[in-house]
Amino acid sequence: MLEDFDNIFRLVPLECIGCHQSPSWLRHALGSNLAAKTVKLIHFRITAGDHHNLEPHYELYKRKNTCTASTADDLDPFKDCNLVTCMPCLGDFADWAFGPTGLPNLMVIAFGDFSFGDRFKWSQALLIRSLIPSTNLYRIVGHGMHDHMIDRISGSREMLSACPTQSTIVYSMNHEGSGIVTDFSAYDLEDSADGTDNSSEGDD
Questions:
Q1: Would you say residue 98 lies in a domain?
Q2: Structural domain contains residue 173
Q3: Among candidates 25, 2, 39, 19, which has minimal Cα distance to 198?
Q4: How many Cβ atoms are within 10 Å of 1's Cβ, its own excluded?
């Protein structure tokens, strides 16, 4: 699969990636590919039903110590769901991607189901690169695509709105000649304890 991923990057500089693979798998794939430096948006695609009634950004808020007591009390603990292992991995991915050894042009990491507007807004989280120097590499925005940073990336809203259950590669060109991959591989956001990916069984 990594070879296929590399071949896509060789076609044209990519700006947006929609991926059903785990954050650790994608970090491995992008970290070894110099062409990935052009990526501006990464979407970890997941349907609302895959994490029923859970706030996916809860663990990220805890990680940054920005979750208010009232918000924390209102949220259900993670139980019997692969997001228990996924969300710390997503935080680690964001620390790398927005960090000095990561992806210099990356502006947004999206997680969740953004199809049908705000219908599944409870499942959505955006991680936005901090433009003002601070101790935090990024800020966390929950619920919807209502952030000006999204509009700075050509084709981003269309890509995020695509149905997340599709499991085929869809490739298109934007007006500036950069590529958009709206989907890659089959869904599996669960990492094994040693950081390897277990998604090969579900690949198309």
A1: yes
A2: yes
A3: 25
A4: 15
Spatial separation of the C-alpha atoms in residues 185 and 59, rounded to whole Å: 25
DSSP summary character for residue 197: B
Pure H helices in 12-155: 23-31, 58-64, 69-74, 83-97
Tell me the C-alpha distance between 193 and 183, whole Å.
26
Tens-place pLDDT, residues 191-202 = 333 334 433 343
Beta strands, E only, the chain: 14-19, 41-45, 108-112, 125-129, 138-142, 171-173, 179-181
The encoded tokens of residue 70 equal: 């009232």
pLDDT of residue 116: 62
Contacting residues for 166 by C-beta, under 8 A, at least 6 apart: 182, 183
The closest of 98, 126, 101 to 111, measured between CA atoms, is 126
Q: Cα(27)–Cα(21) distance, rounded to whole angstroms?
A: 10
Residue 49 forms part of a structural domain: yes
**Is 149 within a domain?**
no
Number of domains in the chain: 1
- At which residue do the structure tokens 């992806």 appear? 103
Look at residues 39, 51, 61 and name the one whose alpha carbon lies nearest to residue 107: 39
pTM for the model stands at 0.63
**CA distances in angstroms from 102 to 56, 65, 129, 136, listed in the order given:** 23, 23, 12, 15
How large a percentage of the chain has pLDDT more than 70? 44
Domain that holds residue 78: 39-142+159-199
Nearest to 158 by CA among 126, 175, 129, 182: 182
